[in-house]
Amino acid sequence: MPPRPQRPLRAFTAGLGTETNTFSPLHIGIEAFEETFLYRPGEHPPDLTEVSAPLHVLRDRSATRGWSLCEGTYAFALPAGRVGRAAYESLRDEILTQLASAGPIDLVALSLHGAMCAFGYDDCEGDLLARVREVVGVRTPVGVEFDPHAHLSRAMVEHADVLVAFKEYPHTDFLARGEELIDLLERCARQDWRPAKAVFDCRTIGRFHTTREPMKGFVQSMREGEKRPGVASISLIHGFPWGDVADMGAKCLALADDDATAVATAAEFGKQLVAIRASSFTPPQPLDAALDAALAYDDHPVVLADVADNPGGGAPGDSTLLLQRLLSHRVDACVGPFWDPAVAMAAKTAGVGERLRIRLGGKAGPDSGPPLDVEAEITDVAEHAWQTWADTRMALGCACGLKIGTVRVMVASIRDQAYGPDLFRAVGIEPEQHRLIVVKSAQHFVAGFAPIARAIVLASGGGPLETDFRRIPYRHVPRPIWPLDEDA
Predict the structure, then answer these.
(1) DSSP β-ladder status, 231-237 and 285-286
(2) 398 pLDDT above the threshold of 70
């Protein structure tokens, strides 16, 4: 007899997140979600994004397998400081109300970040998941796709049946992880299966770029490990070093058919991470040394990444420290994206070809350096600029191209990090024509810029993204922890 058709499942999905840099001078209100990614039921666009993979996968299952889908709110904001208490609670309660109104469902699939902190909440994800569990009860499977730069808390592990983190950094595998999440939740719903979960605490603060060794091989070993009998999923939680909370740090999470397999697998890969942690990340050089290193290359363009002012980690994106050096050395360079809405609007008002006396950058706080009083030529204006990341468009808002001496600056009104060369082309700047391409990013820029770069140099100037973790004034992280404590 042919196999009996499986009944269509009914699913609920929603998303809420940001990456909270507890040292950032910027804080997040509801406006930041509205400006970045806030879609309520009936508003979700068809395009796939990094934060909406569960929704995308479930829509596909609805179309191809007849599943019934209840879409809740998806709300994400760019990384910054803590979220306002009212903003978090209102979005959380909105999702919980939608879930309660959805009626009987077979599974809940959430897209969360994992390192979201609000005023009054160090563990927003754990708080949300606990309340989701209160709504659906213990029998309905609940799953989460999340960013590896997370704080994996006891509450998250306790209240979610399935947790799947991106394996890659940059996070290019979000769709694959979304498929994995829904597959595991379907197994839970159809077979009444619940994975055993185990966490190995690596007692480590680190940065783990998976595009190069040894982390490239580590990711491949996780994939091979998932092929073993009884192993359902393996995730490395990198942790977010600029979130000063009690759950911060690298951890390995394993999902398996039984407790013994889960514990052994988490410990195996956690110990592997500890063994390679000291060689997993090449620290950026100080600004002057990094600039000298970039200029030492004869061929061009060389990409110089301003890691300390990376908006993708919660920095403002308006630091003038590296720009000052480029101008004083008369370097042929382009810089972007530089966050300064006031300058972008002034350029729009004045128009292309005009010259303005402007005060550029240095507005968010003392770590951004002093504002620069310069004369700039407006070379281009784009009312709705954007850049591409993993086949999705990331808005930069009203933007302009400025020429200041030998330097071309891409100024945007929406704060974001650099993803690809099209961010410069949005305002008429051809990055390949310059000796240096200076980007405000830490790692996500690599996928877009590596194909045109003769070399990549990382620069750090301190501030809210200090990369020498021993210099960060932590108060809440668990001790001992490496590299703060060598015996961790």
Answers:
(1) unpaired
(2) yes
